[in-house]
Description:
By secondary structure, the protein is of the alpha/beta class.
Amino acid sequence: MTCGASQPTRRPLVGAHARGPVRKRRGSRAGVTFLCRHLRDNPRATSVARAGRRTTPPAHRDPLRSTTVTPYRTLLSPLDLGFTTLRNRVVMGSMHTGFEDTPGTFDDLAALYAERARGGVALIVTGGFSPTPEGALYPGAGGMYAARHVGRHRLLTDSVHQHGTQILLQLLHAGRYGLHPLVVSASRVKAPISTFTPLALSEAGIRRQIGGFAKAAELAREAGYDGVEIMGSEGYFLNQFLAPRTNRRTDSWGGSPANRRRLAEEVVRAVRAAAGPDFIISYRLSMLDLVPDGQPWAEVLATAEAVEAAGATLISTGIGWHEARVPTIVTSVPRAGFADITARVRAVVGVPVVASNRINTPEVAERILADGQADLISMARPFLADPNWVAKAEAGRADAINTCIACNQACLDHTFTGRPVSCLVNPRAGSELTLTVSRAPARRFIAVIGAGVAGLAAATTLAERGHAVDLFEGAPSIGGQFELAARIPGKEEFTETIRYFSTRLAETGVRVHLSTRADARTLIDGGYDDVVLATGVEPRMPDLPGIDHPSVVSYAELLSGKVVAGPRVAVLGAGGIGVDVCEFLTHAHSPALDVEAWRREWGVGEPETAPAGLVEPQPEPSPRQVFLLQRKSTPIGKDLGKTTGWVHRASLRAKGVTLLSGVTYEWIDDDGLHITVPRQERDRTASARRLPSTEPRGDAVDLWHKAKTGSRTAAQQVGRTAARVTGMAATSARAAGQLSGLGIARLPGPARSRAEAGLERANSVTSAMTSAVEGLRGRAGLGPRESSIPRQEQVLAVDTIVVCAGQESVRELVEPLRRSAIRVHLIGGADVAAELDAKRAIDQAVRLAAKL
């Protein structure tokens, strides 16, 4: 089942439509449906007379655009919807930016959308706005259910329309995914990603939600929107009625497939009646729920046909619920990995169908359209990475596109932790009003040392501003640590960023000196006004007996190919680098480059036979036995990205990686790696050679002595009390974390005051309880809680030990340059040797360059 597989036969036209074109009456649903079928299958067809509003041509065209023929004829062809025309087949899909919830005006959001409209996108879909108060994602989330909401939306619609782009308001009812006590759903079934149990709606309650959607569409039209998108996928409200997993009703809104899809039909029908015939209605359809008891495939197709008949103009396809344990958009998902599923939906409906998920280049988008798998392409994150994506495709300059690498670090990870979105490869995204790159008032002579992503971003931005820039790199190629990261299976997209910067270096006129290690004397004698040190980091080797043993290598030596790991490997350090190294060690081939292999690994089957798309995963066996160790006692992967960490943890488990926390590294010799682990961890190292247990230390010794002196009961009582208080403190800490993650700063005045007070109380309780635990343990003569677990000495008989235990900044040029009075600026790893934080490094580089 590959993206280029033959596609299902299209549903034949019947009746009058089979005899050829008919004159379309204004507002005729049959006429619109026929015209959509005809023009989507003949994208170069001559446009016919259009009823209703027209698309206004842009007042200004970007100079990058070209009128020459491009390789993307289908992608850039217009799509006539009967009452309006989209100027090309490219949609900026919905993404919650965090600005939707901002009190006051939408200045930041308008600036973000306007820049993408100026860049040539045909249609923009906003982030989700709730059609009813109970449908909100969380307190203070954006809504469109009252007249007071309309005014500030006009800034959005006006900013987009002036560039010839159309815009839809996404109506997103969260249902049981809402993070507030008013949540409602089909049945009283709590979501695993929410702390609130929903109220099962009554008949009147359901009618009220339908009316809310209709009212929201009316308000959207009043605000200047060209249409709405009805969110019916990703496990939200309408999806909850559709799936047996969450719809346990026995009335006319549940039970049979027809009853379960009734709400979706009635919502679309109500929106069409309220908004009129010349208003785009996009219905976001869940093609594969990827959860147990999700919609069967036959029901998915029936839903698509039903919402079309109810009045949908477009069907936009979605994949997977938020609670699904199958990744659908991270960088390890193959490009266009679900396009063939979209094609099967397209075969049964007559309205245009939108493909989405892991589409990031014009080549991929054009292939999907040319192969008849979809009629439009929806991308969200790629427009954060490059607002001029379409303009560059029009000019035949795909090489100039700053391609989305699907890392999620500055977009979705921000969204799910209550922060406004940005982009790792384009920090200007979301900061259009505050981070501007303009011509410098005076030209300066600047040296940038290091061609990792921080140095590349600094050099190209400085040159763009008109400065004369020399870029020095000791290696024979650019990329630095990013080039190593691109060698991880599932991170091949990272090469796109290196390709982009290579193009930018040539475009901006940066003088590049490869295989050249710039020393202080060269820089001092060079007459530079400023030197930007982007010299990065080098792996840190721990102070450990035997660290110079031949079996020990750094992650850089392994990933660069200087050494090859043996069949049994220990990885020291379980941060992002250690996890990536495990992915490298356990994959002989990259599933990200093979759709079929990826689907086998994650258990995604043929929709016709696999319920909700799920089958038993069949990952390729790891070529090595791998142990991933960390000193911290916290769960491995706890500090990884919100939207990607769980993917890595699941992948490592599937590959049989042994995960050990709370490890003490003792020494290394010919026998292997000698460690001490908490006793409950020892069963995970069944293949390790165990040594005789040492005498219990810390609390275990103290408790043993107290038992000998008759104070065992008292010690146990204190221990039980401390454990209870510790549990209460943990609960309080979780409450504080949930409060802080809800975006308190964006709440209106009274609600913000109450939330801030609640957060302060939760933090205070956490602190008091933590102190109480320590006091109780101290009074009983117990040591720190971390030492209470008896430990076991073991030796891991491994062939290779890969050290991923941190980095050190490379700064040897700092002092001699500063003594010479040259202005020196540190960026990236040279400034802070964090966990190879490319997001911070590129952002820091661009912001520095924008000021110099």
